[in-house]
Design brief:
Length: 217
């Protein structure tokens, strides 16, 4: 059976247990395309980890497979070998701008490499920014979604008028999206693979869930 390879952070990461009849966008896409889901995304992980896992898997990409790459924050770095979810520096002398520059260079190298590794696939891969890495180069043979999943996630929340608009310190959604937008995102991704229609995160539904729902016990 052909495979859907998925890489990224918590916007794509799989869950060990899910309620009955609840399918995140990653599972929906695999089912709609008739592919086996191979989800290598990891909660809290870095672009370093995505580069490492995808390059290691690249020799196993077959022509009938499909690939999705979700880009996380550029300032995350893979700190501990056995735990890629630890991705924020904990020491004082860390120069964020300097390391972001290095990571952008690594990302550019990876983009050229992964374009080469996937150019035999019948279904063109898609890159979906959870956060925009702000690089000019976009691979010609890989799709690049518009918008950012992190912004779409924030736009789902209905904030009181006097409340600053920022991500809550707790989460009640799967992959930081409501189920409605899991459906919407999966549909856009399937349309990309089948018809090359642009994936636009800005088109995900807004103002869906009240802020107080995040703090219900």
């Amino acid at each position: 059976m052909s495979k859907l390879w998925i890489y990224g952070d918590s916007y794509a990461a799989p869950f060990e247990y899910l309620p009955e009849n609840v399918n995140p966008w990653t599972i929906q896409v695999a089912k709609k395309l008739g592919l086996e889901s191979i989800n290598k995304a990891k909660h809290g992980s870095s672009i370093d980890y995505m580069i490492h896992t995808s390059i290691n898997d690249a020799s196993n990409f077959n022509k009938d497979d499909a690939c999705i790459f979700v880009l996380t924050q550029i300032n995350r770095s893979w700190q501990i070998a056995h735990d890629p979810s630890v991705s924020y520096p904990s020491y004082r002398e860390y120069d964020i701008d300097h390391h972001a520059m290095i990571r952008k260079s690594n990302l550019l190298c990876w983009l050229h490499a992964i374009e080469n590794y996937t150019n035999h696939l019948k279904l063109r891969p898609i890159i979906i920014p959870a956060w925009d890495p702000e690089i000019e180069y976009k691979p010609k043979n890989i799709g690049w979604a518009s918008g950012e999943l992190s912004k779409s996630s924030l736009d789902e929340i209905i904030f009181p008028n006097n409340k600053k608009k920022e991500h809550p310190d707790t989460e009640c959604r799967l992959n930081h999206l409501t189920l409605t937008n899991h459906d919407n995102l999966s549909e856009m991704i399937v349309n990309w693979f089948l018809s090359q229609n642009q994936v636009d995160c800005e088109k995900l539904q807004k103002m869906v869930i009240p802020l107080e729902d995040f703090y219900r016990t």
